[in-house]
């Protein structure tokens, strides 16, 4: 949901607030005439929760040195006394399906003698997560074990928690992702239903239990699992994954079971052992008809659900579900890659023009060439206002070429690491710093004792290869009236296009979906960008210093400087 108050540009003395509400995130883009910013110390923000009948000033982590010279570790401060010094503020504590009013109040005066202007109020309703009443239901886990919020809430890393405390931490980390995944599976609760799954990493017992329960209820569950084991060192690693999947299937009576029609429940995907069966989707059928699909970046694993950042995306659209079902039937034959590429390109033709068709367009891999990957890169290069891009395993060269071209709009890039190979790190950094409007965040936690007043953060030890972001999505002009969202299992790489079993959704024109993805993207980007900056400062200086608020309006200068990143951000989000 998006709304701007006041609706006329120069009402309230040139002061406006634009709210963009997803499910768990509400972004407030604030704007003010430059002349009115003289003497501005920031903004106090009050949230009224009409759903739960609560009202309070929101809090932040920064404060004035004059009023709090020695803030305790992990302290947060009311924005009424410690105003926000930014023109973009995000509420990461919002809840789905809630009615909120946000009052944004300009603060002036001095740190010990604050004065308040008349504020602007904006009313929003956050989006619902309900997996049954929406065409699209989108679920992001928190993906931030290395955060002040996690440390305040649980004190210890997940590996040190037991019993009810561990259960509470996992529920907090899941933030509805596991619950939605299990709820999707549980829809197959009678003989009229069936499930068709394609899984890569598969070791989380509650998912196996849910699939077994569904099989007992409907009698028709079939699961394609990655059983590819190449020779050499890579083969040993893959064998662990395959063995884990077989164990889950065996332990829950699914490995050798058969449906009522005598079909195997568990189907190994073994052709082309040097490639991977990277899908993570489930199709729900009702009386033989595909009706919905669960997909996204989340493997059915402990690390995928609770560790690194991931998304689960359910689509209730018969045509989309039917396409996934046809793709599943092709995969179930365990075809060689050179055979299925023809089927994939016939069923889901490579996109050529931008923008893509309205609605939802599935794209399946492997494919014959890199034309579809090039289309994704060209889509990002076709934006007019804003791009957002994720890369868990480095940035492919076709995307680097796009980001090296200077553009007049902001482009955000969120990386797990600069590059998989050390030799590619400097090349990637160089390419992504040509245009200052390309803003990069790299996965990080705060260094120990790095910032005065901050609690020590924990590294994500649930996951190993990928600790911060496992997402694979891109947003093109997400704040426009005709946004494009690309999301799924593929890593925007050569291998994900021409070798691996993958699926993607290209969604055009759905502002609700775009708002949810953008809110979560900015939550993660800003979280890690801050930690990346602190890490660099810590390594360069070795100093501990609290990030105090400015005691004058000097903080506003960059927000009005022509051509500056902060000025462009103010214009973009407000």
Give the helix/strand layout.
Blueprint: E1 2-5, H1 11-14, E2 15-21, E3 26-32, E4 42-49, E5 54-57, E6 59-60, E7 77-78, E8 88-91, E9 99-110, E10 113-116, E11 120-125, E12 136-140, H2 148-154, H3 163-174, H4 177-186, E13 193-199, H5 205-218, E14 221-226, H6 233-251, E15 266-269, E16 281-286, E17 289-296, H7 302-307, E18 311-315, H8 318-332, H9 337-347, E19 359-365, H10 371-380, E20 386-391, H11 397-404, E21 410-415, H12 425-431, E22 438-442, E23 473-476, E24 484-488, H13 494-498, E25 502-508, H14 511-541, H15 565-573
Parallel strand pairs: 13-14, 14-15, 20-21, 21-22
Antiparallel strand pairs: 1-2, 2-3, 3-8, 4-5, 4-9, 6-7, 9-10, 9-11, 12-18, 13-16, 16-17, 17-18, 19-25, 20-23, 23-24, 24-25
Indicate the radius of gyration in whole angstroms.
24 Å
Number of strand elements? 25
The side-by-side strand order for the widest beta sheet comes to 12-18-17-16-13-14-15
CATH level 3 topology of the largest domain: Endonuclease, Chain A
Q: How many helix segments?
A: 15
| Uncertain parts | none
Report the CATH architecture of the largest domain.
2-Layer Sandwich
Describe what you observe in this structure:
- 47% of the residues are buried.
- Helix 4 packs parallel to helix 5 and helix 8 packs antiparallel against helix 9.
- By secondary structure, the chain is an alpha+beta fold.
- The chain is 29% helix and 25% strand.
- The protein has a seven-stranded mixed sheet with strand order 12-18-17-16-13-14-15, sandwiched between helices.
- The protein is built from 15 helices and 25 strands.
- The chain has helices spanning 11-14, 148-154, 163-174, 177-186, 205-218, 233-251, 302-307, 318-332, 337-347, 371-380, 397-404, 425-431, 494-498, 511-541, 565-573, and strands spanning 2-5, 15-21, 26-32, 42-49, 54-57, 59-60, 77-78, 88-91, 99-110, 113-116, 120-125, 136-140, 193-199, 221-226, 266-269, 281-286, 289-296, 311-315, 359-365, 386-391, 410-415, 438-442, 473-476, 484-488, 502-508.
- The chain has three domains: 2-125, Immunoglobulin-like (Sandwich); 136-141 and 176-335, Endonuclease, Chain A, CATH 3.30.870.10; 363-543, Endonuclease, Chain A (2-Layer Sandwich), CATH 3.30.870.10.
- The mean pLDDT is 95.
- Strand 9 (99-110) and strand 10 form a beta hairpin.
């Amino acid at each position: 949901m998006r709304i701007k108050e006041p609706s006329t540009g120069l009402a309230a003395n040139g002061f406006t607030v634009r709210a963009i509400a997803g499910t768990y995130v509400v972004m407030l883009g604030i704007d003010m005439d430059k002349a009115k910013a003289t003497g501005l110390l920031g903004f106090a923000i009050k949230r009224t929760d009409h759903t739960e009948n609560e009202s309070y000033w929101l809090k932040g982590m920064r404060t004035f040195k004059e009023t709090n010279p020695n803030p305790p570790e992990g302290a947060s401060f009311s924005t009424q006394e410690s105003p926000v010094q930014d023109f973009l503020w995000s509420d990461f504590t919002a809840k789905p399906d809630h009615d909120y009013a946000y009052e944004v109040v300009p603060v002036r005066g001095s740190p010990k003698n604050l004065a308040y202007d008349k504020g602007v109020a904006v009313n929003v309703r956050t989006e619902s997560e309900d997996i049954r009443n929406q065409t699209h239901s989108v679920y992001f886990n928190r993906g931030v074990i290395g955060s002040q919020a996690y440390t305040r809430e649980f004190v210890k890393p997940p590996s040190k928690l037991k019993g009810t405390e561990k259960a509470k931490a996992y529920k907090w980390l899941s933030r509805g992702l596991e619950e939605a995944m299990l709820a999707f599976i549980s829809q197959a609760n009678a003989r009229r239903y069936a499930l068709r799954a394609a899984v890569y990493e598969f070791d989380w017992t509650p998912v196996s239990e849910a699939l077994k329960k569904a099989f007992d209820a409907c009698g028709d569950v079939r699961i394609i699992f990655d059983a590819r084991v190449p020779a050499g060192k890579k083969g040993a690693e893959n064998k662990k994954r395959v063995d884990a999947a077989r164990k889950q299937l065996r332990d829950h009576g699914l490995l050798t079971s058969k449906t009522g029609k005598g079909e195997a429940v568990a189907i190994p995907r073994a052709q082309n052992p040097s490639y991977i069966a990277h899908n993570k989707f489930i199709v729900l059928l009702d009386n033989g008809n595909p009706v919905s699909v669960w997909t996204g970046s989340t493997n059915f694993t402990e690390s995928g659900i609770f560790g690194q950042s991931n998304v689960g995306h359910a689509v209730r659209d018969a045509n989309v579900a039917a396409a996934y079902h046809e793709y599943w039937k092709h995969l179930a034959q365990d075809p060689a890659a050179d055979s299925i590429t023809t089927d994939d390109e016939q069923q889901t033709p490579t996109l050529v023009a931008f923008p893509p068709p309205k609605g939802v367009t599935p794209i399946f891999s492997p494919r014959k060439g890199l034309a579809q990957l090039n289309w994704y890169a060209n889509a990002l290069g076709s934006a007019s206002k804003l791009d957002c891009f994720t890369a868990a395993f480095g940035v492919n060269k076709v995307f680097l070429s796009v980001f090296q071209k200077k553009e007049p709009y902001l482009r955000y890039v969120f990386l797990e690491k600069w590059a998989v190979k050390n030799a590619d790190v400097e090349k990637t950094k160089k390419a992504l710093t040509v245009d200052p409007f390309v803003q990069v965040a790299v996965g990080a936690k705060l260094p120990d004792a790095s910032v005065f007043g901050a609690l020590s953060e924990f590294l994500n030890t649930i996951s190993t290869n990928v600790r911060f972001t496992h997402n694979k999505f891109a947003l093109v002009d997400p704040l426009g009236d005709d946004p494009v969202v690309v999301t799924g299992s593929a890593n925007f790489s050569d291998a994900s296009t021409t070798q691996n079993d993958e699926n993607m959704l290209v969604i055009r024109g759905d502002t609700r979906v775009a708002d949810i993805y953008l809110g979560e993207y900015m939550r993660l980007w800003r979280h890690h960008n801050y930690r990346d900056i602190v890490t660099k400062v810590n390594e360069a200086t070795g100093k501990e210093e609290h990030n105090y608020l400015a005691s004058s309006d000097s903080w506003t200068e960059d927000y009005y400087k022509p051509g500056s990143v902060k000025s462009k951000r103010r214009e973009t989000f407000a």
